[in-house]
Amino acid sequence: MLGDLTPILVFSLVGGFTHDGGFSLVDVLRNIALLGAGWIAAVIVLRPYAKQGLLRLVGTWALGITAGALLRAAVLGRSVDAEYLGFWGVTMAVTLVVLATWRLLARTLGASLDPTAPS
Fold first, then answer.
1. Phi-psi sector, 53: left (phi>0), alpha (psi -120 to 50), beta
2. What pLDDT band is residue 119 in, cutting at 50, 70 and 90?
3. CA distance 105 to 116
4. Closest Cα partner for 49 from 4, 99, 9, 92?
5. Which distant-in-sequence residues (6+ apart) come within 8 Å of 15 by Cβ?
6. What residue ranges do the domains of the chain occupy?
7. Model confidence at 1, in pLDDT bands (50, 70, 90)?
8. In terms of Cα–Cα distance, which of 70, 71, 47 is closest to 60?
């Protein structure tokens, strides 16, 4: 599960370094906490680690990142308008790409490190 939080970490760090106003560790940690809370809530509801499958993982990603983005909007007092939907869209796209990359790497490395796997 911790590895699946990698997309949130990457997204928050990239955002922290690329937005105007300079890097703010507090903002990065806040975004990690809020988006991570959404992910963990989705894990509790959908249980992707107890019942594995691509559909369950994608559902966890979609629900978790959306819930985290809505939680972030509420905490920051932002309205969910067209501008915020842009933030949500970028968040969804970046986290999906990083999650897919992370899962592919984990599967590839896991298979190469498994002494019982056929060579």
1. left
2. low
3. 19
4. 4
5. 28, 31
6. 2-106
7. low
8. 47
Q: Which helix (H) or strand (E) holds 76?
A: helix 54-76
Q: What is the pTM of this model?
A: 0.85
Residue 34 has what DSSP assignment? H
Residue 22: both structure tokens together: 């300079």
Q: In whole numbers, what is the pLDDT of the chain averaged over residues?
A: 89
Distance of CA 1 to the CA centre of its chain: 11
- Spatial CB neighbours of 85, under 8 Å, sequence gap ≥ 6: none
* Cα angle for residues 52, 53, 56 (degrees, 5° grid): 95
Residue with the two structure tokens 């959306």: 66
Token readout for 99 is 């999650």
